[in-house]
Structure formats: C-alpha cells, structure tokens
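anyone seen this seq b4? input:
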Amino acid sequence: MEVMETELPGVLVIEPRIFRDERGSFLETWREEQYSAAGITGFRQDNAAISKRGVLRGLHFQFPEPQGKLVMVLHGEVFDVAVDIRRRSPTFGRWISRILSADNGRQLWLPEGIAHGYQVLSDAAVFSYKCTRPFNPRFDAAIRFDDPAIGIEWPIADPITSAKDRSAPLLEEIPTASLPSFDPSATSIEAISGGPRP
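predicted toks r here
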C-alpha cells in the first residue's frame, strides 16, 4: 500500500494494492503492522452505512471523546470530505476532498479532530469506517455541511440530508472550548512512524 499526506496535517490517503483478474478483485482493507507503521492504530468500532445517490452525511465529529476514522467505500462511489476543526491548527477551517470508490479501493485516514462528511455519487454506496473510539451519543456533534465560511463544493445540488445535519451549527457558532485541539507531534508520517518512509 502507499501512504500519502494531504494538505491537512495528519489526514492521509491510503492507496492499497488491488489484485484483479477475470473473477473480480481483491485487496487488504486492514493489516495491523502495515497501518501501525503509518501511525494508524487503536480501533474500537467498525461501522457501515448504505445510502442512495445524492445522500449527504456530515459534517460529523465527536467531542470531548474524538474519534480517529479510517474510511472507505465497499460498493459504489462517494465524494468524501475532511474539515480541520482543531483549534490552533495551521489549516483550521480548511477542507479537502477525495473520490472514494469500490473500484479504486482508496481509504482516507482522519485523525482525531477532523470533521467528516460525504455525498454519494453512484446509484447506491456502502460506506465503511473503523473508529478509534466507540460512538457516544452524548458527545455526537456536527457542523453544517453548507457552512459558507468553509465553502465545500458538493457535487450534487439539493442533497438528501437528515434533519440533524440540516440544523447543525456553523463552525463559527461552536465555542472554542467545544472543539478538539491540534497536536503537531502526531500529524506527519515521519512523526508517527519514527522516521521517513522509504
């Protein structure tokens, strides 16, 4: 697998090795020693969501028990978004996106303190994610997916969303004390793996 840094500190793109033949394809979605070398460890819960085209889920985070997430698509295709909401982060309020699909097998690692959302581009999608902490409804939080200050360019207009996501606050409306902190010591591949990768 190949591990690549993104514009947001600590957010990584994982490009797996995919084996294809006339039967279909095969890839490893998790192997502890390989992912540990990139600082991706400690999973406590696995989830899967099935959604139809146009569904937008997010922007979600958990605080004060933040979750790191390793996300991927098992069926279909999504426009996946990470937003840095870590106070004192040099990229606070910025976002990145990647297309995740069953075909490309790509994964996105979202460290603690990153808000996450996605929109389904295919007729349907099965979205899978591993979490470093269990879901806790007391600490469940969200930011409006259409926050103009963040300015995410969602590909499908008039998304299908939940009432909770439509009524989520803007980032500027969330008290600073209710946002996670930035830890620069755990955000680069070199820092979390003990040295530069070959």
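Helices lie at 32-36, 163-166, 189-193. The chain has one domain: 2-17+34-170. kinda curious what u guys think
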